[in-house]
Design brief:
single chain; 3 strands; disordered C terminus
Length: about 160
């Protein structure tokens, strides 16, 4: 049964309908459950609207699209189930960003990407002695450079046993 909406704004009404459709998904539910999910959709939309300073602007539209897309994501059924069951409340869901809505697998992949990115951005690719006019041949100086050739550390090698 189509959800009844009357916010007075065409985009907001459509957002509620799409949120409701995403919450229902492909499953069959009773009329009572359908009405409960319609209320959840209305509450989520009201929270989003409030968080966007009661304006339907680009930010509101982007948030709405993100919520609907994430609820429909077949690779992330846990999000939809948690919103339906109430484990994630409407207000909490309305405030969630893409990272928070991501599936466990996507969060794991994002973590790996961040770690690799950080490691690559500070990778030491050049370890070489610094030419010096120091008369002490037992003290060596080394420098570490990043990929761009910028010196990130330079100092004496404390191990003189080699």
């Amino acid at each position: 049964m189509p959800v009844q909406v009357a916010t007075g704004d065409k985009f907001r009404d459509n957002c509620i309908r799409l949120l409701h459709k995403a919450l229902v998904g492909s499953s069959q539910c009773s009329e009572e459950e359908d009405q409960r999910l319609a209320e959840v959709a209305r509450h989520v939309e009201q929270c989003m609207y409030r968080d966007c300073n009661f304006q339907v602007n680009k930010h509101y539209k982007d948030i709405a699209r993100s919520k609907i897309w994430n609820l429909k994501d077949s690779k992330n059924p846990e999000l939809r189930e948690n919103v339906i069951s109430g484990n994630i409340g409407a207000e909490e869901f309305a405030k969630m960003d893409s990272e928070a809505m991501a599936s466990k697998e996507r969060k794991r992949q994002n973590s790996i990407i961040r770690k690799n990115s950080l490691a690559n951005s500070i990778a030491i690719v050049d370890l070489k002695p610094i030419p010096m006019d120091d008369p002490d041949p037992n003290e060596r100086k080394v420098t570490f450079s990043d990929r761009a050739g910028n010196r990130i550390w330079s100092g004496s090698d404390m191990d003189t046993s080699t």
